[in-house]
Structure formats: structure tokens, C-alpha cells
């Protein structure tokens, strides 16, 4: 399965991100979730070396602390290294935010599949 | 926008069920910040689609208006959201799949991050 992306992002040009959160409207749970993903990324990205990207060590720390459930279930001790290699699409040895988003997308897809399986199991009972 | 690389997740069916088993902890145990953020991303779609794999046009309109109105201009303008939906609809089935929805979430998260940090990632 592949995640297809919109190559013509042109349609999105009409939707510049604005910080409307200063207005009276409360951010939705989904918007808060996106904020917290950004915060988590930058919290680890600023630990050493280049700010704004995750080094191998920072990615490991992030996954050990923030994705401990996921990481514990990965039996392969080289899991983080493999994930690093997969995420680092431009091969600079660093994971930038856009590359980090791939991890979030991948986990979301696995999570959704899990949900569907869970629902099927429930349905059978 | 770059294609998301998720090859670290096994894609054949046998292994996929193993991965799904693994990730069940994200949904059903007590998650931390990042895990609960991912959970929210997933459940927001599933709540809107009533657990189905696709979201129809009006469902997508509602989701954008209610859940993304704080981030996107024109979120309550039906024609603009429709246009965006067509941009996301890579398989041209008139619906928004979970993966197409994730494309939008990824794009928005990137824009939000850029606007916060003042950097612009090289959009390839």
C-alpha cells in the first residue's frame, strides 16, 4: 500500500495557514493534536546539533519516550535505525518535520487498520 | 509535496495484521502526548465517516468546517472545500479516503510548523 500524495498542491494555495487561534474560537481536538505533534518534534529537535531537525540520537530519544508503546512492540533492536533510514528521504542523516510527518502518517494508517480489525472482531461476537 | 514514505510498516497482509496488533496499544492503552495525538487524528476521521473507510462530500465538508476551521481560511465556504476535496482525491472516486485525509493533515501540520518556526522546508 502506498500513500499517494497530491502532486498538484495548487488547490491548497488558497488555504494559507493562519493563526486564527488568537481569535475567540477554541481549537478543535484535531487542531490541538497537530499542535502537540509539532511541539513534540521541536522539543527533541532542539536538543543537540541542528535545531529544527532530528538527529539519529534525537529520533531514538523521541521514539523511546513518546512512542514507547510502539517501540516496545518492535522486536527488532535496529528498529529505530531502520525507521530513520526510511524517513530520511533526502539522505542528509537528519529527519526534518516533513519527514517526521511520514512517521505520523504511517502510524495513523496502522492505527486505523487496527481499529477496523478490532471492529470486525467485535462484530463477530 | 513529498510522497510520504511508510515502507517501515509492512505492507503484505500477513505482516500487516501483526503491525495492527502491535499498534493496538496506541488505541486501547493509555497513550502519551504523541500517541494520543495520533489517536485523535485517526478517531476524528472515523467519527466523521461512522467507521467507514471513505468520507463522502458532505461528511468532508462537515469535518473541515468543524475540526479545521481554526486553521484554514474558507473552511466554511462549501465551494472552496469542494475544490480542496478534488485536489485530495487522487483516485478520483469522489470520496475522501483515510489516506487522502492524512495527506491533508500532513500538509496542514507542515504549514503550521513552518509558520511557527519561520522556516520553509524545501517543497520538492
From TrEMBL, chain A:
Keywords: Calcium, Metal-binding, Repeat. SUPFAM superfamilies: EF-hand (SSF47473). It comes from the Eukaryota. GO terms for cellular component: cytoplasm; extracellular space. Transmembrane segments: none annotated. The keyword Repeat applies. InterPro entries: EF-hand-dom_pair, EF_Hand_1_Ca_BS, EF_hand_dom, S100/CaBP7/8-like_CS, S100_Ca-bd_sub. GO terms for molecular function: calcium ion binding; calcium-dependent protein binding. This is Protein S100.
From TrEMBL, chain B:
GO terms for molecular function: calcium ion binding; calcium-dependent protein binding. Gene3D superfamilies: EF-hand. SUPFAM superfamilies: EF-hand. It comes from the Eukaryota. Residues 76-111 form the EF-hand domain. GO terms for cellular component: extracellular space; perinuclear region of cytoplasm. Keywords: Calcium, Metal-binding. This is EF-hand domain-containing protein. It comes from Perca flavescens. The lineage of its organism: Eukaryota, Metazoa, Chordata, Craniata, Vertebrata.
